Amino acid sequence: KKDIPAANFIIHEIHCSRNLEVCSYCSESIPKSEMKNHIESEHVQVTCKCRMKMESSLLKDHQASACPLRPALCQFCDIPLTFNKLQDHEVYCGARTETCGGCGHNVLVKDLKEHPRVCG
Question: What positions does the domain TRAFD1/XAF1 zinc finger occupy (predicted)?
Answer without folding.
Answer: 78-120
